Amino acid sequence: MAGSTYGTAFKITTFGESHGVGLGVIIDGCPAGIDFDEEFIQGELARRKPGQSKIVTQRKEEDGVQVLSGVFEGKTTGTPIGMVIYNKDQRSRDYGHIFDKFRPSHADYTFHAKYGMRDYRGGGRSSARETAARVAAGAVAQLYLRTLGVDIKTYVSQVGSIAVGKTHEELDLSLIESNPVRCPDPETAALMEKEILSVRKDGDTIGGLVTCVIKGVPAGWGEPVFDKLHAELGKAILSINACKGFEYGSGFAGVTLRGSQHNDAFYTDENGTVKTRTNRSGGIQGGISNGENIYFRAAFKSVATIIIDQDSVNEAGEDVTVSGKGRHDPCVLPRAVAIVDNMAALVLADMSLRQRSARLS
Amino acid sequence: MAGSTYGTAFKITTFGESHGVGLGVIIDGCPAGIDFDEEFIQGELARRKPGQSKIVTQRKEEDGVQVLSGVFEGKTTGTPIGMVIYNKDQRSRDYGHIFDKFRPSHADYTFHAKYGMRDYRGGGRSSARETAARVAAGAVAQLYLRTLGVDIKTYVSQVGSIAVGKTHEELDLSLIESNPVRCPDPETAALMEKEILSVRKDGDTIGGLVTCVIKGVPAGWGEPVFDKLHAELGKAILSINACKGFEYGSGFAGVTLRGSQHNDAFYTDENGTVKTRTNRSGGIQGGISNGENIYFRAAFKSVATIIIDQDSVNEAGEDVTVSGKGRHDPCVLPRAVAIVDNMAALVLADMSLRQRSARLS
Amino acid sequence: MAGSTYGTAFKITTFGESHGVGLGVIIDGCPAGIDFDEEFIQGELARRKPGQSKIVTQRKEEDGVQVLSGVFEGKTTGTPIGMVIYNKDQRSRDYGHIFDKFRPSHADYTFHAKYGMRDYRGGGRSSARETAARVAAGAVAQLYLRTLGVDIKTYVSQVGSIAVGKTHEELDLSLIESNPVRCPDPETAALMEKEILSVRKDGDTIGGLVTCVIKGVPAGWGEPVFDKLHAELGKAILSINACKGFEYGSGFAGVTLRGSQHNDAFYTDENGTVKTRTNRSGGIQGGISNGENIYFRAAFKSVATIIIDQDSVNEAGEDVTVSGKGRHDPCVLPRAVAIVDNMAALVLADMSLRQRSARLS
Amino acid sequence: MAGSTYGTAFKITTFGESHGVGLGVIIDGCPAGIDFDEEFIQGELARRKPGQSKIVTQRKEEDGVQVLSGVFEGKTTGTPIGMVIYNKDQRSRDYGHIFDKFRPSHADYTFHAKYGMRDYRGGGRSSARETAARVAAGAVAQLYLRTLGVDIKTYVSQVGSIAVGKTHEELDLSLIESNPVRCPDPETAALMEKEILSVRKDGDTIGGLVTCVIKGVPAGWGEPVFDKLHAELGKAILSINACKGFEYGSGFAGVTLRGSQHNDAFYTDENGTVKTRTNRSGGIQGGISNGENIYFRAAFKSVATIIIDQDSVNEAGEDVTVSGKGRHDPCVLPRAVAIVDNMAALVLADMSLRQRSARLS
């Protein structure tokens, strides 16, 4: 029982391998009547694509998306939106030297164990290239969420040991796209960029953190008891390649606070809206949005593909050396930002539609 | 579109409110032929139930489970297993003083916003009492997993600022049940217990961390690309009340490691099994188990119910004071251990069955 | 991967065996705010229960439903509604004589083949007693549909070879409950009753047809392309024990009509509503309701349990004789009416909620 | 909540409109290791495509399928199989004259009511052209089922009033493809062909029946209680455009039989296999296959598109005349055969995989 579908009401199913013919996605459940801004979708893909700056992989992938269905006269029709991205820069020959080797901390061995076979070209289905399909779908989710006033902003908050020293409230999130790292703190961004270039020079890779801030979500989204809003966000973000951890609101650090310190007191603002004075809840209480800003952080490990030689085994169980080559990411964080934005959008679009059934209308 | 179902192949649906008639669960998809050890199930419920020691709430709930279906002559039949736990200690009168107040950092306000109404008795559906139903179901999942040699052990690794100084490999996990905190490091357990009693004396609450270690999972469990094993574990654990974060393997701390430091080298052991020399992957690569031990950590915030007076508002938006009373948990961690064990079991049972469809048999 | 769940937005999961402790259902996804009329639910169960007249089985089952959750202060809360019906009249001893025999045209053999074991008491999970849980859930669906003006009426239109000679438009559907057969044509009902009593006297059973007419469904319910409204109705009705066929609108007989004879011409009525002059479409076009009355027919075979001796085999493959005894239905049709009404209600409630996501609101 | 997905374990999602860029399907859950016979898939599409004989529409659609993913070195990989069929013969101009008219007994009005808009080109998503994607997916299901020895054969058993006089056991099913009607009774096929040509000459259309016979399904497939094998077959077949009815085994006609006449007696054959002497059950008992041949019949109404002028209304509610033109099917039955074969294959492949979880292995 496969797992290439995400969502219940706004439901996406992706397909495609790194070096196959192409990859794509079907969105089933997108409401009719949304202005379909194809340029925006292509722009989100551009934020994820390789080769966009000197601190990411220099592979050239155009990632041009072709819309096959579900749009008519510029609007969504309510029927499935099919989108495909053809692989242009396949270069299968790059991978012949590792076809029977299990690359360390990749999914080569586990795919082999699971299916009894695998597409060894660039990781096949396990490649992060799959996320291009998610980004295309998430961009459509964003088009829907915009009609509701929801805004999602992710930024790089740590690279290796270099962390942004400010909270997300203290940052100017409009600066995210002002540098190739996608960190809205320009000084820290410069340090991060330097670090990434240094790592790259060593043929090595490095991890980091992203922070995501979501504004404009009304109170009431999220479904008790398993499909809590933060549980779905957690699953969606953890399903992104290289993600090792997820926390929202006060997160891991918050466990040292006592209840009397951690609780967010309610008050009524001048418009009669119920608000909280603090937001350690991260905009979510009991798994349901409370109208405050939602925020979470996610950890991404260093990319497994390195240029440095590594010990491993092959399918026959023999000792082999895996030698890196090709054009790989020294740090996925700058590109992960686009993926996190759009995965969060998929979760929220789904929850928005699910909320429509909560009560007698 | 509601969210009280978890799992795809081993599927559970829970129902019930804190102070309603009862709560329970249907398991649909449990394989036929499993020896149904009702005593074990009741034992898992006992590990979760209130009143089991002086460091948890003193509420008395028997949590006796009644099996209604799906078991015949001591074995599971393959048809749905219905289980119900009647609420004995309802004491609805305890809650009259807060029926229209939104308790800080509870789900009162968000349920009200979502449904336009709510069962205000003890949090209703949002109460952690719901997890009793999950534990009953998870215990059945454990009975199934035992037949495959899978063993799950969760322990308390931090309370407030008091953390276990050893890794899970350095600990003797058979000591988990040797103290009421459920920490296998006796010295640290004593400090944690003292801290919890101190917090309780102040009418306050405190958070902490659990660590879960899963042994015996074969390579191949987990479904690309959204239903990765760790993504499902993350969702399941994050859906537990008060959980604020999830990380597996190297987690958040691992992001500072370079690829050359983080990658787990493969080798073939004396039995011809492919193994990794280190396990920063946490037993999962590309979302699929690799045969190594799986481990993760989860953060639980301090319980929202405190005895200390708090500012809040009521349904009319007026300022009110919420005064705590009753018998509440100063720290959920010791009881959370049983919930985490059993939620992990639900994820693994599901993934085990899903794996059966992966290839031509 | 089990199949005890029906519905996507208004989702039910049933459990329970004929002679186990009890059976029941969880409804997950019922909107908050519906007046919960428990008497109506009990009334629907009374229409399904055995022993209600001399033409159905004389088994005595009270079928009293206990509501465990999801209702507060007389209204649905939006959280799961758990309901249980305890088995009172178990008499397990009745079934000892057949515990290893495969009764002809029952599910004994197929359950054994599927699960490697079975609960042989009265058919266990395969017993039509399971439909009591569906009826309870369907009655809640009816409470929801009432708020939208939807009305469902099923009647017996044929018993053996005795068929009602009038169309559903020519009948007075308020007469359905005026006789024990539940046929709104009193003369035909009398003949049917006589036939059933004659069959019963012979220790035999007989089949028949029901017709269902649904009024008040607005245009727009039903989901292209697999979950068409009539496809979901078909699945739901075919899933009822003994059902062998389903047709809607012009059905099987309509295939002899040419397109020019079959098509339903549109016109606009005095209120500006688009209507059709004829209704061979059965109120559904392209799988979506068009605002006209929905109608369908379903075929139910004769009950497999007869008093007459039959040849069969046992689990060891040896020839045996199955001798009927006990109190069984000579004809399920009068009781099937209640099941069909409520299964149709489940389909429509689900489709109503699903429609809420179809477009930008 | 959309409905373009079918299946639980062998899960397909289709997309595409009649006159959009293209249509296609993702299969998620196809086991790894199946020999991927692309020629067979293309052959199944050829059996469905228009223009294949003089008794079907003369539209030219190549329906060449492009496989985008999920196949490597000639075998399925276990990851999603994406397939796309580009629309070549769009001719959108054909549809300008009806863009705001509701064609009688089409889905124009209901799509408009549901989504507030519609793609009016050739019916858009409601067009039977969507079934090409199902056929491609079903052909892959057939490749899987072949490895298990399952064989599916559908034929035309009635056109208008011209019916095959023999049972499926009396026919030589290898003759199905021997004539353009796809009726294995050559004399009747000739009469049917004559009838279809006559109807076509009148600018009219006609309906009919298909019969499907499935051999080689082992005992044990099908899931109690809602996802019974025949209920899923019913839903799948009823979801095909123009289908109005479904019956299996003894069907509608069987309701006149008494239990003593209808029951299928069990015996043990020379190989020790449990068999039934008759097969009124249609190979399914209690919703689970019993090892006998499965058979069902389905009714298809006359195609709604006729050349003859018809009264209707437009979006403004004004009276209009719909004048047929273009190249349409006088009778869908010959092409429906391929769709029914492949929808049945999808149901069976799904049930086969679901059965893998039924018991301890």
What does this 3D model show about the protein?
The structure is a homotetramer of 361-residue chains. Chain A is α+β, with helices and mostly antiparallel strands and 361 residues long. Chain A has helices at 38-48, 108-115, 131-146, 186-201, 229-238, 259-262, 333-355; strands at 5-6, 11-16, 22-28, 65-67, 71-72, 75-76, 81-86, 151-159, 162-163, 208-215, 243-248, 266-268, 274-276, 284-285, 288-289, 294-300, 310-313, 319-322. In chain A, the strands form six sheets. In chain A, strands 1-2-3-7-4 form a five-stranded antiparallel beta sheet, covered by helices on one side. In chain A, a hairpin with a 2-residue loop joins β14 (284-285) and β15 (288-289). At the A-B interface, β1, α2, α5, β11 and α6 of A face β1, α2, α5, β11 and α6 of B. Chains A, B, C, D: Belongs to the chorismate synthase family. Chains A, B, C, D: Homotetramer. Chains A, B, C, D: One of its GO terms (molecular function) is chorismate synthase activity. Chains A, B, C, D: Its cofactor is FMNH2.
